[in-house]
Amino acid sequence: MSAIWFGGLQVRRLERGQTPVADLHCTACGLHVRVTGRLHVADFLRAQPMNEHRATCPARAASTERTAA
Ligand SMILES: [Zn+2]
Predict the structure, then answer these.
(1) What is the rounded CA–CA span in Å between residue 5 and residue 9?
(2) How close is the Cα of 23 to the center of ligand 1, in Å?
(3) 17 C-alpha to ligand 1 centroid (Å)
(4) For residues 69 and 61, is the Cβ–Cβ distance under 8 A?
(5) CA 64 – ligand 1 centroid, Å
(6) How many A from CA of 8 to the centre of ligand 1?
(7) pLDDT score of 60
(8) For residue 49, how far is its CA from the centre of ligand 1 (angstroms)?
(9) What is the pLDDT of residues 16-35, one digit of tens each?
(10) DSSP H or E run through 64
(11) Environment class of 13 (CB within 10 Å of its CB; exposed 0-12, middle 13-18, buried 19+)
(12) Model-level pTM?
């Protein structure tokens, strides 16, 4: 199975004639976002959703609070 991982982001089905699927998976808070379709996936990747999520991840915020305390 061919897959490319960008941190918590997995992109599959990039072969010719297939519909690309991007899965954003945050193991910290359990968030799962799926985007399908070549254009949607391209836009999704360009937006760097993992960076964006890191800033707002509820689990990460909680652990930062704990570390700071
Ligand atoms: Zn998260």
Answers:
(1) 5
(2) 13
(3) 32
(4) no
(5) 13
(6) 9
(7) 74
(8) 11
(9) 999 999 999 988 898 999 99
(10) helix 58-68
(11) middle
(12) 0.72
